[in-house]
Amino acid sequence: MDLKKILAVSGRPGLYQSIGQSPRGIVAESLLDGKKVTLFSHERISALEEISIFTHEDDVKLKDVLKIIFQKLEGKPALSPKSSGNELRTFMAEMLPDYDAERVYDSDIKRLVSWYNLLLEKNLVDNEPDEEQEAQDADNQEDKSAVKEETKTEKKPKPQPKSPTSKASKATTSAAPKPTQRKTSPRAK
After folding, report:
1. Which domain holds residue 20?
2. Per-residue pLDDT for the chain (189 aa), expressed as one digit of tens each?
3. E strands along 23-154, which residues?
4. What domain count does the chain have?
5. For position 11, which CATH number holds?
6. Is residue 27 within 8 Å of 19, Cβ to Cβ?
7. CA distances from 36 to 71, 118, 125, 149, 183 (A)
8. Counting runs of H as helices and runs of E as strands, what totals does the chain give?
9. Tens of pLDDT along 111-166?
10. Per DSSP, what are the bridge partners of residue 26?
11. Does one domain contain both 96 and 124?
């Protein structure tokens, strides 16, 4: 599931898929009706890749939450986003029991459910892990272990004390004096 090009725009319904750039902004296609629109730089645009859900421990990426919902519902649509607040909170507690109920509002859950249903309808939600993400995770683990080993074996040298310098020696090495004359404008003549 690649959510890098899927965008949410504050104040606009649905989701948008980035198609390209224009001089004025981002050209995107609405996933609701397929219309192409220009999203301007003054609009609050968020890629779904960057969005997270608050939990009591660490924040969970939206991508991971969508995968969890897909697994638990076995690829079926979620409940209606127009459901009551209690139904939405019950649904969220079933899907992500560790979510922070104080910081995740009903409107956030409605948005999550509507996004999931829309992405499912467009076949943009799947259960398969991303190859790029797995490769990056493996590289990060290798880098972290290499850094840990280096820091264990290396000893940092002690800093040498600076030699004192006199103020007089700094003053003598300064640049030449600046000219004090102003340039005259052609009108002054």
Report:
1. 1-50
2. 688 999 999 999 999 999 999 999 999 999 999 999 999 989 999 999 999 999 999 999 999 999 999 999 999 999 999 999 999 999 999 999 999 999 999 999 999 999 999 999 999 887 666 555 554 555 555 555 554 555 455 555 565 656 555 555 455 555 555 666 666 656 655
3. 25-30, 36-40, 45-47, 52-53, 60-61
4. 2
5. 2.30.30.730
6. yes
7. 32, 17, 22, 52, 56
8. 5, 7
9. 999 999 999 999 988 766 655 555 455 555 555 555 455 545 555 556 565 655 55
10. 21, 39
11. yes
pTM above 0.70, yes or no: no
Contact residues for 16 (Cβ-Cβ < 8 A; gap 6+): 6, 7, 8, 9, 28, 29, 30, 31, 37, 39
Would you say residue 27 lies in a domain? yes
Tokens of 18: 């980035």
| Claim to verify: residue 56 and residue 46 sit in the same structural domain | no
Query: Residue 106 falls within a domain, yes or no?
Result: yes
**Assigned domain for 68 exists:** yes
133 located within any domain: no
> Which domain-ending residue is among 128, 148, 177?
128
Where residue 110 sits, what CATH number does that domain have? 1.10.10.1650
Helices (H), 30-130: 62-72, 85-95, 106-121
Neighbours of 88 (CB within 10 A): 23
